[in-house]
């Protein structure tokens, strides 16, 4: 039975204090602290992962919709108290906190995967979340992130992914772009996505001819760095109508994931 919370500053729900303030913290907090998940669907997905739960918090009706494992602390409050706790109006009605997934090794991920996405310089949490959701839906086996990428387990990333990021192996690379040599040595064709008109048409890359593919995506605006572009096997573009030079990175990722299945 969930315990009642009447004080927004109650220490029992400390994992959820001032979540909105976290949106403005500098990057020093990347990849640390608990995972916070919003909404019944995403929380249900979290429960299926087997990650160690820390707490559940929300309004009574949304908590009642969940099959809460025995021993997991659960707390309920009215919507105003919940909103004051977290620092914004919560429309999804429930949150959960959990310990972070234990990161797999790069070697283990490369052995087990056929399609991977490699992200460079993506500092927008929502783009990472959207890419993670598309990756799970469209047959990508893992995400590799360069050291400058935003935290994939930050609240907004997980929210936009609908919790799917929690089911996808994610590796934070340490040697960049040196780790690309390891990816290529494992038999992956490395494909850099670019709007450059001199790049090959993405549709010309037959997945049958390239059974193991690593798709590289850079941040919107700057794209992939010159050093990274020089280290890949193929530069590919998504063909577009005249007058449109590019898609947002999340949309481009989904198109490329589908093409390279």
Automatic annotation (TrEMBL):
<dbReference type="GO" id="GO:0032259">
    <property type="term" value="P:methylation"/>
</dbReference>
<dbReference type="InterPro" id="IPR029028">
    <property type="entry name" value="Alpha/beta_knot_MTases"/>
</dbReference>
<dbReference type="InterPro" id="IPR001537">
    <property type="entry name" value="SpoU_MeTrfase"/>
</dbReference>
<keyword id="KW-0489">Methyltransferase</keyword>
<keyword id="KW-0808">Transferase</keyword>
<dbReference type="InterPro" id="IPR029064">
    <property type="entry name" value="Ribosomal_eL30-like_sf"/>
</dbReference>
<protein>
    <submittedName>
        <fullName>RNA methyltransferase</fullName>
    </submittedName>
</protein>
<dbReference type="InterPro" id="IPR051259">
    <property type="entry name" value="rRNA_Methyltransferase"/>
</dbReference>
<dbReference type="GO" id="GO:0008168">
    <property type="term" value="F:methyltransferase activity"/>
</dbReference>
<dbReference type="InterPro" id="IPR029026">
    <property type="entry name" value="tRNA_m1G_MTases_N"/>
</dbReference>
<feature type="domain" description="tRNA/rRNA methyltransferase SpoU type">
    <location>
        <begin position="116"/>
        <end position="257"/>
    </location>
</feature>
<dbReference type="Pfam" id="PF00588">
    <property type="entry name" value="SpoU_methylase"/>
</dbReference>
């Amino acid at each position: 039975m969930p315990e009642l919370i009447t004080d927004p500053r109650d220490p029992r729900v400390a994992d959820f204090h001032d979540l909105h303030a976290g949106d403005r913290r500098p990057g020093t907090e990347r990849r640390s602290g608990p995972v916070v998940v919003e909404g019944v669907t995403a929380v249900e997905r979290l429960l299926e992962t087997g990650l160690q739960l820390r707490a559940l918090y929300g309004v009574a009706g949304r908590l009642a919709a969940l099959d809460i494992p025995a021993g997991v602390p659960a707390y309920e409050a009215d919507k105003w108290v919940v909103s004051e706790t977290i620092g914004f109006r919560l429309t999804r009605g429930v949150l959960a906190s959990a310990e972070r997934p234990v990161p797999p090794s790069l070697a283990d991920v490369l052995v087990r995967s056929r399609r991977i996405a490699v992200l460079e310089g993506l500092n927008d949490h929502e783009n990472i979340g959207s890419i993670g959701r598309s990756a799970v839906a469209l047959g990508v086996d893992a995400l590799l992130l360069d050291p400058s990428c935003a935290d994939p387990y930050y609240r907004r990333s997980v929210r936009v992914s609908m919790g799917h990021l929690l089911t996808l192996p994610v590796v934070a690379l340490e040697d960049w772009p040196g780790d690309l040599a390891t990816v290529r040595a494992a038999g992956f064709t490395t494909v850099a996505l670019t709007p450059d008109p001199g790049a090959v048409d993405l549709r010309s890359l037959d997945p049958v001819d390239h059974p193991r593919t690593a798709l590289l995506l850079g941040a919107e605006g700057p794209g992939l760095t010159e050093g990274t572009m020089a280290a890949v096997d193929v530069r590919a573009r998504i063909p577009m109508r005249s007058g449109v030079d590019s898609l947002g990175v999340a949309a481009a990722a989904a198109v490329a994931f589908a093409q390279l299945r």
